């Protein structure tokens, strides 16, 4: 007696093959590939994402980290993906902090991931705030 033939497992993946993964990317997009594209900037380099991507997803589609730790300099890429661990904080070129896993990427957004660039952005902002508060002259 032969065993019954197994039917293929149903899939919710798109019928077309996803694009080949980028060599240095942490994430690979396997679904929802038809959303509208947009462009944004990582460390001054223009890259693409899809409408509705979180900033974390958008950045990790291009590289393996979203920032460098201000304590050790080690690369960080988020952990929980749900806004609980605080591991995915990033900065915009203007120095604004964003939690990447709970912020949607937007057209033209400019973020930095390298500690040296963040330090050069944040120090003047902190100094300006201290001057405005009368803490320093
Ligand atoms: S990945 Fe944990 S808070 Fe964003």
From TrEMBL:
Species annotation: Paraburkholderia domus
Q: Polar residues bias: where? A: 1-15
Q: InterPro entries given for it?
A: 2Fe-2S-bd_N (IPR042204), 2Fe-2S_ferredoxin-like_sf (IPR036010)
- Matches recorded under SUPFAM superfamilies: 2Fe-2S ferredoxin-like (SSF54292)
User: Mind listing the UniProt keywords for this protein, alphabetically?
Assistant: Oxidoreductase
Q: What is the name attached to this protein's record?
A: (2Fe-2S)-binding protein
The cross-references to Pfam families, in alphabetical order and at most eight, read: Fer2_4 (PF13510)
Region entry Disordered, spans: 1-24
Does the keyword Oxidoreductase belong to this entry?
yes
Alphabetically, the GO molecular function entries are: iron-sulfur cluster binding; oxidoreductase activity
Taxonomic lineage is: Bacteria, Pseudomonadati, Pseudomonadota, Betaproteobacteria, Burkholderiales
Q: Looking at the record's lineage, which domain of life comes first? A: Bacteria
Gene3D superfamilies reported for this sequence: 2Fe-2S iron-sulphur cluster binding domain, sarcosine oxidase, alpha subunit, N-terminal domain
């Amino acid at each position: 007696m032969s065993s019954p033939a197994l039917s293929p497992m149903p899939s919710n993946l798109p019928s077309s093959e996803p694009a080949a993964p980028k060599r240095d990317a942490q994430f690979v997009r396997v679904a929802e590939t038809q959303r509208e594209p947009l462009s944004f900037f990582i460390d001054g380099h223009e890259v693409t994402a899809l409408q509705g991507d979180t900033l974390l997803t958008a950045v990790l589609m291009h590289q393996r980290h979203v920032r460098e730790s201000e304590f050790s300099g080690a690369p960080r890429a988020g952990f929980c993906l749900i806004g609980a661990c605080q591991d995915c904080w990033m900065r915009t070129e203007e120095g604004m902090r964003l939690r990447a896993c709970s912020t949607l990427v937007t057209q033209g957004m400019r973020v930095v991931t390298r500690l040296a660039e963040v330090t050069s952005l944040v120090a003047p902002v902190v100094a300006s705030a201290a001057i405005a508060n009368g803490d320093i002259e």
